[in-house]
Specification:
With 201 residues, the chain is an alpha/beta fold. The protein folds into 2 domains: 4-47, Helicase, Ruva Protein, domain 3, CATH 1.10.8; 76-198, Dna Topoisomerase Vi A Subunit, Chain: A, domain 2 (3-Layer(aba) Sandwich). It is 44% helix and 13% strand. The chain has helices at 4-13, 21-33, 35-52, 69-72, 87-96, 123-131, 146-161, 186-194, and strands spanning 54-55, 62-63, 77-84, 101-105, 137-140, 167-170, 197-198. Strands 4-3-5-6-7 form a 5-stranded mixed sheet. A two-stranded antiparallel ribbon has the order 1-2. Strand 5, helix 7 and strand 6 form a beta-alpha-beta unit. Helix 1 (4-13) crosses helix 2 (21-33) and helix 5 (87-96) packs across helix 8. It is elongated.
Length: 201
């Protein structure tokens, strides 16, 4: 008979992306067989993460400090800001090691159907970062979906309305229509970043 604690653990793991009830049961059984070497360290790591993870007030990344490690890295090019929808997209681009600028996480996309407006996203924060000076290029790396492209064009228009010399570009070659950055391989993402193109006027 499955105890309530085990049942609860299975139920929680089943809510994770890519895990259903069956996979969650297998994962829990694996953890229980390795309590000392895996389950206890995992529990401590989850505890520490829950206690220490912060949202970067500059870019919206998740880290154990604010501002995050990327924003405080003096080796990175502060003149470039890559705009992404979600932290998963930022991590996907970082995985390629092909971009050495800064990021800005929007926290989603504009969506008339879902009632998501510019004020619901971190667009005002992006505009404020550009207005503060030093930014010469904004790379709009939103997903190749209808909402992603709508969001990119809206941001491009906002930036082009500013009285500043900022190039607005977007990812190109290799990103399929409807594709999401987090699911693309490193080579495709690197090629897309290198082949970015101007957006808007």
């Amino acid at each position: 008979m499955v105890t309530s604690d085990i049942d609860r653990l299975i139920s929680l793991l089943a809510k994770l992306p890519g895990l259903g009830p069956r996979s969650a049961r297998r994962a829990v059984l694996h953890l229980m067989k390795r309590t000392d070497s895996l389950m206890n360290p995992l529990a401590r790591a989850l505890d520490a993460a829950a206690e220490n993870i912060k949202v970067c007030s500059t870019c919206g990344n998740l880290d154990t400090r604010d501002p995050c490690e990327i924003c405080t890295d003096t080796r990175r090019d502060g003149a470039q800001i890559c705009v992404v929808e979600d932290v998963a997209d930022l991590w996907a681009l970082e995985r390629t090691a092909g971009f050495k600028g800064h990021y800005h996480v929007l926290g989603g996309t504009l969506s008339a159907l879902d009632g998501v407006t510019p004020e619901d996203l971190r667009i005002p924060g992006l505009i404020a970062r550009i207005r503060s000076g030093g930014v010469t290029e904004v790379i709009l790396a939103t997903n190749a979906t209808v909402d992603g492209q709508t969001t990119a064009h809206y941001i491009a228009d906002r930036i082009n309305d500013l009285d500043q010399d900022v190039t607005v570009s977007g990812l190109a070659h290799g990103v399929p229509v409807g594709g999401e950055l987090d699911y693309l391989d490193d080579g495709t993402l690197t090629a897309a970043m290198k082949a970015r193109r101007p957006i808007g006027g």
